[in-house]
Amino acid sequence: MTITYSYLRENAGLILHVVRPTKLSYAKLHDLSRLIEEGGQIRADGLADRLLRCRWVAYVCDGLVVVGTAALKTPEDGPDNNAIVKAQSPYNFYDFKIEIGFLMVATLYRGKRLASVLTKALCDKEPLSNIYATVAETNSIAQSILLKNRFIQSGIPFADRAGSGMLLLFVKISN
Q: 58 lies in which domain range?
């Protein structure tokens, strides 16, 4: 299914797609994986398989080139070792079956609101689900995008898996 938001209508050539991952061609899956890997924050091993396990994948193309992507995925962490527990959030891990992740926009397309469009499109696909996201404490732009999409910060900063930075937890409670 292709969805057009007003922002994309104003920018000819940009097309937003929101699909089940099983509908992705091998070539498109490769393009999405390559863009996500360019961000350098997601481990590359098994990325294509992780994308295929997502509930929804959203991506923006400029012509045939993928210039932005994000996905709604099932959290990989267990009930004792997850972002909600690490952030000491008052929310229950079991109330959040979906995490937004793999958000990446190509360098030349940053500042064009694509990350916000991708986030909104995915949240619109699961309006009755609680969703969470983790963002680097230093990434004020991503934090702002989540806040504009009705996420709230919850808990305290916690160390990322590599131990090289701190993350913040954001949650969106369903309607």
A: 2-172
